[in-house]
Amino acid sequence: MCFRGTLLRCVESVYDRRDVNRLIKTSYNIALSYLNMKSASKNSFFLREENIEDLAWDFIADLFQKDEEGNLVAIQSYFRSCKLDELSEESSLIELRKLVFTKVDDNIFRFYGEKDPSLRKIIRNIKLAVKDQECKNRVCYRDGYLIVGDVEEPSGPMMPYDFMSIRLCSRLRENYQIPDVIIEVIDIINSQNEYRKRFSLVGLASIIRESYVLLQDDEFNTFTNPKAVNNLFEKEFDIFLDDSVDKVKTTVGDRYIKKGKLKKEYLNLYFRAASDIVRNDFKEELESSSQYERLKSYVNDLDYEQYRENHRPVLEYIVKLIRQDLIENYRKEWVRF
Fold first, then answer.
1. Over 50: is that where the pLDDT of 72 sits?
2. Rounded to whole angstroms, what are the CA distances from 49 to 32, 46, 58, 336?
3. Which of 50, 102, 308, 335 is paired with 137 by a 20 to 30 Å CA distance?
4. How far is residue 90's CA from residue 103's CA, in Å, rounded to a whole number?
5. 3-state helix vs strand vs coil in the chain, percent to 5
6. Are 249 and 322 in contact (CB under 8 A)?
7. How far apart are the C-alpha atoms of 167 and 282, rounded to whole Å?
8. How high is the pLDDT of residue 29?
């Protein structure tokens, strides 16, 4: 039986039960093969914990939803834009694979987003960046997608994730913030006419995370600083910082006192100054000041010569330990295992 004929009848809503069952079974087999391939990847550890057969059914289910008149809306929307009546049998199957792969990818990313806290954070920051940029008539977020422009064609194939990944990764720079990434995404989508002017939000978040080293040893660079996100991370940052300060104080504070490198009455003052220094390194919320000036704000009788000779090495080392522990905590929170 000609599969292209089955597709045509489903698209034109003149199908019978056998046509729909055949289309569903073929789509399921494609989805299952694709998921098996994905689950073999070292980066798809979540999939290995799941029943792949059940996921294949779940991931393609909405392709076969019908409207009140019995039309297979998703199938119609995709294949009418492909001019199915002009395609060969082989090309028809290729187009079905593209549709199923896109649907499976989309649901994989959503699946990851539900289980992966770091991915959820990037998704949240993309939403906030779009809102901050006020990109009216340029890009908006709706129904899980970033949609470019104020008018979008209602049908047509979705842009493959590999297409976006390759083109976006070649444009990204280490110092880019999320709003910079959004601008590049808009340009990539607008510079082509083969695919719809939209892209999965969760898919984009996955590409971003895979393309960046979120934290580096010498600096804190989460590229997540649109205006609206600052307050959201304020409390979280302070919790991480307080934990790091307490940890370093516990591990080195008593040792420094026993060795005579630090007077007991200075212990809390040193760590308050060190906390201020590290906080300002990352958030730049305090007026610019040297480490000496920051310590002197807590130790009033401290003069500069005393600081250079007796205090600077200790304070610098404490600051270094707090900064390293803070970065390590964020690394564990953000980076995929």
1. yes
2. 15, 6, 16, 16
3. 102
4. 20
5. 65, 5, 30
6. no
7. 31
8. 93
